[in-house]
Structure of phosphoenolpyruvate--glycerone phosphotransferase:
Amino acid sequence: MSRVGLVIVSHSQRLAEGVAEVAAQMAPDVTIATAGGLDGELGTDFEAVSLALEAAQSGAGVVVLYDLGSAKMVADLAVEMLGDPDSAAVVDAPLVEGAVAAAAAAQGGADLDAVLSAAAGAMGDLIPDESDSTEGVEILLTNDVGLHARPAGLLARALAGVEAEVTVTFGGRAADARSVLSLMGLGAAGGDRVRVAATGPEADEAMRRVADLAERGFEESSPG
């Protein structure tokens, strides 16, 4: 399966690599290439961005994220110079949050437009929980870190392709179960109980997948 790739463009090589490392936790099967720094100093390099675009391209397209305005200029130029400029796109999004959201969407098999949308809407604001307190199913988070980065990513990916709207509530707030950042924003830790509700044609399947993942401790045995 070809997945949308990511390119992280930064004035700092270490910053680019760090963002890529965090995003990779959400997406083990997504290619994330970096273009950071200029000749060992701070800056952005057109050739490095072009090479990163090539490295991240698997046929499904590439989403480019950047840190500062001049990095966007270089990224835009590199995309424009591609043989097929429509095969990649630069997105205006918060770098870390956008990379995490885009990686999770790409891992789930989303197309280029959907990955762009995920990055652009990365902040994923939480909403007040106005549901009936008996709605949905209560689930105990038995893993050590609760709904932090990797478990939240696993939950979002588990729902890929399922026709259902799934909401996770905790502490009086609700999050879209497909938004990694919203799930993390709930602050639900190991030992906490969250309430999960689903609606839609495949609501039962969605609940089954969430329950199965929770029973397996979100495949986590230690923090990270």
